[in-house]
Design goal:
The protein has 3 helices and 36 strands. The protein has 615 residues and is mainly β. The chain starts with 31 loop residues before the first helix and ends in an 8-residue tail after the last strand.
């Protein structure tokens, strides 16, 4: 749990919050001008009736996690999707709402809580509220009533991303971004009406909202997504959030608070990276360099690194870097400036955005969530009645073998879905060949695969230093791997593969890739090759874990050093027609593959059964 605070100075958050002045001398200097403007705005609307929960139009391409824009599809002939195809696309064990479009996860009194952005009216972006679901195990979720809706002037145009901070006495602080009736992004405070309620069904908004407004130099629409707070050595809480300077410099602002109602903006920033544009959904947390345990968000001291992650609004990609945090100056420095936030490592190299971690005090682990959006058209989303979903929650640890990566791995609870398993040992896959794996149903799978190849010899041959043009782009040592959600004739398939190669500098490198270009015969679906470098150490074979859930494929290489989430929409490789294959498209080496494959059960996500006494 997070550190405690003095109830005499900070009244319980399930009671009305008092507007006490702070004795700190450096208070609101940087935000005073904007606060005055906001008070004037209040004066203009104070006598007006409360605005209704209005329907707003979807935002444009460059406006945060709402964007669903595939310009390359606009001139494509729409595919004639059937209801059976749409039904197959819906995932069976990933979390998504029952319908329509889909922030601050936490654990409380025996339940994991997931708060997520949700449109109760449509399967496209807009009318953003906070949906709410609970689970005992992070897998079997139960839908609850909406937690927060846009019903005040300071969030009437959307209740956006936020984060929870749990205090030592069990109180829950929820900070979230709201868009005002004047389209200004502000930060607001909410808290449970009854913190003793395990389901946290009812939430109150602080009557003094907003608690933070855009400071001078920050545009009104470039100020969003507060993080979980951490406690500094001086007993003051800190939090950070994303913004930008001069249109191109991504930054992470730092605020101090002692009571979560009054905030002081620091003069500098936690970190800034030129050329990365607007940062949103910033995440900041410690990792132990021994790599064996997760840490509470407020952990400091020797043997600890800090991870800074930002979702880049310009590219819709989540980047992270590992570095050192100075709690005295509130500055963070990357270990490797060439792998800084936004220019180096990605959290996930596929279709993935707006990720968020939380410290699970129940199991002493850090759990990562990410959002996978659709890559078809909004027209298709409206027809099927739902869109987007969450990844399988992942544990996060520092990779002490490389010292440069995080390790992401599906939470152990996903193994509770495993049904029958099939084992394949040392299957020979010759250059240019494809080997079918007869396992029956292949649309809900957990696959562990290890590949052995002949020793690699560095060469001066300069091969393409990336994933190339996909699995068809042959080289001496690869690509090799799996073909998932493929039909018998291989007219539709999604390769998940390794690509070892001789790089331009004469070294051997390995890329881990996912090729969606032949995943569907539909032309109005966005398909591309995803992937990135993955460290493979001298004593390691190539290994991957692949979770297949209908139209979702999550792939983890080398224990989770590199991860790829794919969204696919096959037209023929569905239901009983979906197959699984091994392939080796190398020109010069044989591959031996050993696999264990489980069929996975459905998670049966459903509404909470309030009529029952317990679940």
């Amino acid at each position: 749990m997070e550190a405690s605070y003095d109830p005499e100075q900070n009244p319980p958050l399930h009671a009305p919050l008092l507007d006490r002045s702070s004795p700190r001398t450096r208070r609101f200097a940087a935000i005073f001008a904007c606060l005055v403007s906001l008070l004037l705005l209040l004066a203009l609307i104070i006598n007006q009736a409360q605005q209704p929960f209005e329907k707003v139009q979807p935002r444009g391409v460059a406006e945060g996690v709402s964007a669903k824009s595939n310009p390359s599809l606009l001139n494509q002939v729409p595919f004639n999707w059937t209801n059976a195809m749409f039904s197959w696309q819906r995932s069976a064990y990933h979390f998504q709402p029952q319908k329509n479009w889909m922030n601050g996860p936490l654990y409380h009194k025996g339940w994991y809580h997931l708060f997520y952005q949700y449109n109760p009216y449509s399967a496209i972006w807009g009318n953003i509220t906070w949906g709410h679901a609970v689970s005992r195990d992070l897998i079997h979720w139960l839908y609850l009533p909406l937690a927060l809706v846009p019903d005040h002037w300071y969030d009437i145009k959307g209740v956006w991303t936020g984060s929870a901070t749990i205090l030592a006495d069990g109180q829950i602080i929820m900070l979230y971004t709201g868009e005002t009736n004047e389209s200004v992004q502000v930060q607001n405070l909410a808290y449970p009406a009854n913190v003793s309620d395990p389901l946290l069904l009812h939430w109150l908004k602080y009557p003094g909202n907003p608690v933070m407004v855009p400071p001078p130099g920050v545009k009104p629409d470039d100020f969003r997504d507060p993080t979980t707070a951490w406690l500094g050595p001086d007993g003051t809480w800190r939090l950070t959030m994303g913004s930008k300077f001069d249109t191109t410099i991504g930054i992470s602002l730092v605020y101090h608070t002692t009571n979560f109602r009054d905030y002081e903006l620091l003069d500098g920033v936690l970190h800034a990276v030129p050329g990365t544009g607007m940062w949103e959904c910033v995440d900041f947390y410690p990792v132990a360099i021994n790599g064996s345990v997760a840490l509470d968000t407020s952990s400091l001291g020797p043997g600890i690194k800090h991870v800074l992650k930002a979702s880049l609004d310009n590219t819709k990609v989540d980047h992270y870097a590992i570095g050192t945090y100075d709690p005295i100056t509130d500055k963070w420095t990357p270990d490797n400036p060439e792998e800084d936030v936004g220019i180096g490592l990605k959290v996930d190299y596929g279709r993935y955005y707006a990720s968020k971690t939380f410290f699970d005090q129940h199991k002493q682990r850090r759990v990562l969530w990410g959002w996978i959006n659709e890559t078809d058209t909004e027209t298709a989303d409206l027809k099927k009645g739902w869109a987007s979903l969450q990844t399988i929650p992942r544990t996060v640890l520092y990779d002490n073998k490389t010292g440069t990566n995080l390790l992401q791995w599906p939470v152990e609870e996903v193994e509770s879905l495993r049904l029958n398993s099939t084992m394949f040992k040392e299957v020979l896959v010759e250059p240019g060949s494809v080997v079918p794996l007869d396992i029956g149903t292949t649309t809900q799978l957990d696959i562990l695969a290890e590949f052995e190849i002949e020793p690699l010899i560095p060469s001066t041959t300069n091969e393409i230093d990336n994933c190339g043009d996909g699995a068809v782009d042959r080289s001496t040592y690869g690509p090799f791997g799996l073909l998932v959600i493929a039909d018998a004739s291989l007219s539709e398939l999604t390769p998940i593969y390794f690509r070892p190669l001789n790089a331009s500098d004469g070294s051997l490198k390995t890329y881990f890739c996912s090729d969606e270009t032949r995943s569907s015969k539909a032309s109005d679906v966005f398909k591309q090759v995803y992937g990135g470098k993955v460290p493979v150490l001298d004593d390691e074979n190539y290994n991957m874990r692949v979770l297949v859930d209908h139209s979702i494929v999550e792939s983890f290489a080398q224990g989770g050093r590199t991860v790829i989430s794919s969204r696919i929409y096959p037209t023929e490789a569905i239901y009983g027609a979906a197959r699984l294959f091994l392939f080796n498209n190398a020109t010069g080496v044989n591959v031996k593959a050993t696999l264990k494959i489980w069929e996975l059960n459905s998670a049966f996500i459903r509404p909470f059964p309030f009529e029952r006494d317990s679940v």
